[in-house]
Design goal:
The protein has helices at about 20-30, 35-40, 45-50, 85-95, 115-130, 145-155, 170-175, 180-190, 210-220, 250-260, 280-285; strands at about 35, 55-60, 60-65, 75, 100-105, 135-140, 160, 195-205, 225-230, 265-270. The protein is an alpha/beta fold and about 290 residues long.
Length: about 290
Amino acid sequence: MSDLVPKEYKPKVRLQIGAGYRFVNGVVNNYNLNTVCEEANCPNIYECWSRGTATIMILGDVCTRACGFCAVKTGKPTWNDPLEPFRTAMAVKKMKLRHVVITSVDRDDIKNDYGTAIWSKTIREIHKHVPDCTVEVLTPDFKGDKSLLKKVFNAKPEIFSHNVECVERISKVVRAQANWKRSLNVLRYSSDHGLLTKTGIMVGLGETSDEVIRTMEEVYDVGVSIFTIGQYLQPSKDHLKVMSYITKDKFNQYKNIGLEIGFDIVESGPLVRSSYHADEQARVAIK
């Protein structure tokens, strides 16, 4: 079957604004937190919040990078909130989470550590106040600085995630201020440090099937255990255009190939994002 389907096709988002959604929305607002669910226009916000889960975004809501796929605001951040790690832990406790995903904007403006001190403190505060909750972090690359990455590693998140985002050939177009090989090295360093390591890509940006498979092989070879594949959806007219919509059969094919390559878990589907069903993945992956 061809990778291409009619341009009219788009993955359908189910609107579920029930008690669970309203509860999560209330907790996020009460603790004055940001979520990538809202800031990145995630199509799964209704499903995930209705299930009582959310991906908390620390270090503010303004990113110093301007990736062609991302809906998060870009500019000069003004965030200065040393109590955010504690409030994040209290929100996790209020939601009674057994697994939480924490992410952040890129903070290249914080020259001393790119925000890794707040990352470390956030992980430690959650472990301290909600000891039964496992922590998954989805981090920036921190310019590939091993000493800074080690600060995050030493806080002992149960899962470390950093996305390569796409196949290498189109990486400079998709995220001009990043470096694909640097991201691969971040994943290698996480795995070498003994952490359960995860990454993901978007498809529909002009990649070929062979490139997707080669990407899976490369990230598996550096020690990645969990791999996600989702359809790229254009957030606005100013972002990169969708080159193709991938069929569900193709997503299933990618999943089967990924499992054959050796990943413990492959989450593959039109609406899959990095933290989609992360709590279920964690239950399987964390021994």
